[in-house]
Design brief:
CATH class of one domain: Mainly Beta
Shape: globular
Distance between the termini: 78 Å
CATH superfamily of one domain: Sortase
Number of helices: 4
Largest sheet: 8 strands, mixed
Strand order of the largest sheet: 2-1-5-6-8-7-4-3
Strand content: 15-25%
Radius of gyration: 21 Å
Number of strands: 8
Helix content: 25-40%
Structural class: alpha+beta
CATH architecture of one domain: Beta Barrel
CATH topology of one domain: Sortase, Chain: A
Length: about 250
């Protein structure tokens, strides 16, 4: 009887080991594939086939040449985000009719647990809205928006006070205003994602005051009505449904 129990336990442990090994290997393979996909996109941006003349985007704007080829691949593309000394160097997309489509799809619209950084559906990137809310996964391999976690340390912010977020037509730099943690899907949490366009200066100021109140440290940077913001959001695992948010204002 003891021998049978020993054999069963051994088989169970072997099965657990095989299963764990399978998922570890698959994770590394998926990570490598994602890296290859987005490295290819970076190469296109850094070494674009520049058209002979400017390509019209709207009545008064033209495409930034290095983003044109990617836009032709996927018209959901609305910009490009980059944070130095992190892996954040990605196209940013938006799907208005399927708001969370890119939560589980990469840039080429095929399924991926890594997704692709995307703008909340009710934000207008070109206008732009007072606050562009941009989401990205916190992946264990440090990809997507996992690099935002570095902003928990004031020493990192001191060396990385600005974030680059280009639209398809404009190169833009944003200065970090506040970094904070909150929880989603909770009455106690700060619903930062509900603020996209201020009805008046008072509403705008309320958003900034709350960001400052929750901030992990003081940046000495604020914003006032008329300043354009981005709020970068990713999962934060110290609490259930935790979120880390980096709010920055556009520097003209």
């Amino acid at each position: 009887m003891n021998k049978k129990i020993y054999i069963i336990i051994t088989l169970v442990l072997a099965a657990v080991l095989v299963t764990s090994t399978f998922f570890i290997v698959r994770h590394h393979i998926d990570s490598a594939k994602q890296t290859e996909v987005y490295d290819t996109l970076i190469e296109i941006v850094e070494e674009p086939d520049v058209p002979d003349e400017n390509v019209t985007f709207s009545e008064d704007k033209t495409f930034i040449p290095e983003y044109l080829e990617l836009y032709e691949q996927n018209e959901d593309m609305v910009g490009w985000i980059k944070v130095e000394d992190t892996k954040i160097n990605y196209p940013v997309v938006q799907s208005v009719n399927e708001p969370n489509f890119y939560l589980k799809h990469k840039f080429d619209k095929t399924y991926s647990a890594y997704g692709c950084p995307y703008v909340q559906e009710n934000c207008d990137v070109q206008k732009p809205s007072d606050n562009l809310v941009i989401y990205g996964h916190h992946m264990n391999d440090g990809s997507m928006f996992a690099g935002l976690m570095k902003y928990r340390d004031k020493s990192f912010w001191e060396k990385h006070r600005t974030i680059s977020f280009d639209t398809l037509t404009d190169h833009c730099e944003y200065e970090v205003v506040a970094v904070f943690k909150t929880v989603a899907y909770s009455q106690e949490g700060f619903k930062y994602y509900q603020f996209t366009d201020a009805e008046n200066a008072e509403q705008y100021d309320e958003y900034i005051v709350k960001c400052k109140e929750l901030a992990l440290y003081e940046t000495g940077v604020s914003a006032e009505y008329g300043d354009k913001l981005i709020s970068l959001s990713t999962c934060e695992y110290s609490r259930n449904n935790g979120r880390l948010v980096v709010v920055a204002k556009r520097v003209d």
